[in-house]
Amino acid sequence: MRKKYNIIDDGFHPELVEKAFFDGILEIPIIQAPKEIIIPKTMTPFTKRNYVDSYDTAICEYEHDYRFANLIYDPEAVYEDISRFSAFITPDASLYIDMPLCLQIVNTYFNRAVGAYFQSRGEYVIPNIRWGDERTYTTCELPEKIAFLGAPKHSIVSIGTFGCIRSAENKYYFKAGLEAMLIELEPVVVLVYGRMPDSIFKDYAGSTQFIQYDDWTTRKRRGRS
Hints:
Blueprint lengths: L21 E2 L4 E2 L13 E3 L12 E3 L8 H5 L1 H8 L4 E3 L11 H20 L4 E2 L7 H4 L18 E5 L7 H18 L3 E5 L4 H4 L7 E5 L2 H6 L4
Parallel strand pairs: 3-4, 4-5, 5-6, 7-8, 8-9
Antiparallel strand pairs: 1-2
């Protein structure tokens, strides 16, 4: 049985944001734009980090939430391990389209809080941008676009399609959120973990520089370590 964590008892890890600045009325921790844009050679999931033959890779969390729960629960415990690698992409905590809005906000908070913590310790941090339903990437419910709070404009961001565009409904929300993200953040570079189908990305080909990375399973199938 997987161990379940309780993050309530210690106040939701206030130490993660001791040095952070905050964005918006929801006070989402801010990920500062890097001084220069560095494009990772590869992306490696958090649980596969010990299976690569080079530290020149970005550690990402495009996998089931329980696989990187300890990263959110106790990031200090894995900091030294993560710091070996060239870049860190903030946790891809799930924002399902049928998830209560309060939980979508909480997962956005931890995405940025963990990133702000690693950035405060000198790591090269790339914000992962994740959205759920239209309440997260429009102002239809709240006066701010939750999914984009705390992320820098005119910089580098990362998104994941792996497991997120399987159904027609998923594709609809993914494309709508992608368009909103490109308008709101105007990123210079967008890293994409997983497939980039034309049905979603073709309309935005000239909006930014998209860089695609195979998911871990595809990467291993093609013999890339």
